[in-house]
Amino acid sequence: MGQSADVPAVAQEPLSETIEKPAPYDEKLARLSEILGAVHYLRNLCNKDGEREWRDAMQTLIDAETASEPQRRARMVAAYNRGYRSFASVYTTCTASAVAAESFYRNEGATLAVEIAARYGN
Questions:
Q1: What is the spatial distance between Cα 102 and Cα 98, in angstroms, rounded to a whole number?
Q2: Pick the residue with more confidence: 100 or 16?
Q3: Are 16 and 24 in contact, with CB atoms under 8 Å apart?
Q4: Which residue stretches of 1-122 are H helix?
Q5: Spacing of C-alpha 45 from chain mean position
Q6: 72-95 in b/e burial notation, b at 16+ Cβ within 10 A?
Q7: Beta carbons of 21 and 72 less than 8 angstroms apart
Q8: What is the C-alpha separation between 67 and 42, in angstroms, rounded?
Q9: C-alpha to C-alpha distance for 25 and 11, rounded to whole angstroms
């Protein structure tokens, strides 16, 4: 005899690697991502040769933190882009205030990176 048509389908549990659990430092990581985006924009605005190191640092951070977590990855990328665009909408040329903002954000980012590593990291 064949299988009954009214046998309920077995619900599949999601695979463990598709379940994303936020890290306790995700808010700080989002802020760091935003800072990296801002610094990348400002450094390139004021450096006629351009710099890739800030974008590359962000890519390395994203790859290390979100290898199998597409939603966390998307949040970090969005934060980076938000930081980049927030300054792109204000500064179109390198000014003294752009240089000051870059220095301030770079210092904040360095402090934040040290705090995250000291409290949560390796």
A1: 6
A2: 100
A3: no
A4: 26-46, 53-65, 70-88, 96-120
A5: 21
A6: bbebbbebbeebbeebbeebeebe
A7: no
A8: 28
A9: 33
**Which residue, among 75, 73, 44, 40, has the nearest Cα to 55 in the 3D structure?**
40
Residues 105 and 39 sit within 8 Å (Cβ to Cβ): yes
What is the maximum alpha-carbon separation in the chain? 83
Q: What token pair was written down for 35?
A: 């800072």
User: What does the pLDDT look like over 26-84, one tens digit per residue?
Assistant: 899 999 999 999 999 999 999 877 778 877 888 888 888 887 888 888 998 999 999 99
Distance CA 79, CA 34 (A): 5
Model confidence, pTM: 0.77
For residue 92, what is the DSSP state? S
Give the number of residues written for the chain: 122
Three-state DSSP at 86 gives helix
Residues 5-18: tens digit of each pLDDT: 454 444 444 444 55
Rounded CA gap, 99 and 84, in Å?
15
